[in-house]
Amino acid sequence: MGSGEGTGISGDSPDSPDSPDSPDSPDTPGLGRGVLHPARAAELITVERLAPDPAVARSVEYYWLVRWDLRGLPPYEQKVLAHPNVHLVLEAPRARVYGVDRSLFVRRLEGAGHVLGARFRAGAFRGLAGHPVSALADRSVPAAEYFGPGVDRLNARVLGASGSPAALADAFLRPLLPAPDPVAAEVAAMVDRITGAPDLFRVDELAAELGVTVRRLQRLFAEYVGASPKWVLRRARLHEAAERAAAVGGLDLAALAAELGYADQAHLTRDFTAAVGVSPARYAGAAR
């Protein structure tokens, strides 16, 4: 189970800048796909998606701003099925870079506060890292390791609410971003294909559709994404399953398993339980 110093929470949102025409679904009230138990989370936290400057947007998909006020309430643990993206998170006590969390990302929130995150496009952090992104998998490190001491000054300004957080982040990141990398753009398109519609279930199917070998696909994902293509395929299916399970109405597990390419309902249940910690039926019941 992933956990760490930070308080960042971010899922994939239908109202992110990349898909402005898609309405929020009723089961993810503005929080985004991947945020578990979204109805309860929406009572305690708010999440805003902020568009980056066009010059920054080739690397940063969007900023996310999370606010909470739990004064007088017990601490709250938010669980997230993370996405195949690296994040720069401006938070107390200092800014950190989070690699792809391949387990269950858990954050404990208490008191009142806010945090700003920059979600890098899949593959886009490779140029900043200077090494394979797989080295960051399941880890977080001080952001100064990649952005220098100026990121801690930015952190203080963002947490001090002095100015527009997105504008402050834009001004900081704009001169630091590397030149466009056509391979990173290729990898981003591959990830978008997987996450846009979870209708591919095997790595060899994905490789055949993309016109590359399985080995090249695996190498590209290790170098640029920080998770294997098999993991990204599986995580896309689990995001879909969690979203369906949290939706209003009955959950037909057998039908969902068939739609998501599982051999049977038992395989879906095992996969979901291993990732989320509870069965899909129990998760669906908790959402009612």
Describe this structure in words.
The chain has helices spanning 38-44, 54-57, 126-129, 144-147, 150-159, 165-173, 182-196, 203-210, 214-225, 229-246, 253-259, 265-276, 280-287, and strands at residues 45-50, 60-69, 76-81, 87-90, 96-98, 104-109, 112-120, 140-142. The protein has 288 residues and is of the alpha+beta class. It has a six-stranded antiparallel beta sheet with strand order 1-2-7-4-5-8. A two-stranded antiparallel sheet has the order 3-6. A hairpin with a 5-residue loop joins strand 4 and strand 5. It is flat.
Helix share bin:
40-55%
Secondary structure category: alpha+beta
Distance between the termini: 25 Å
Number of helices: 13
Largest sheet: 6 strands, antiparallel
Number of strands: 8
Radius of gyration: 18 Å
How do the SSEs run, as a string of H and E?
A: HEHEEEEEEHEHHHHHHHHHH
Low-confidence stretches are 3-7, 13-29
Oligomer: single chain
Physical arrangement of strands within the biggest beta sheet:
1-2-7-4-5-8
Mean pLDDT: 89
Structural shape: flat
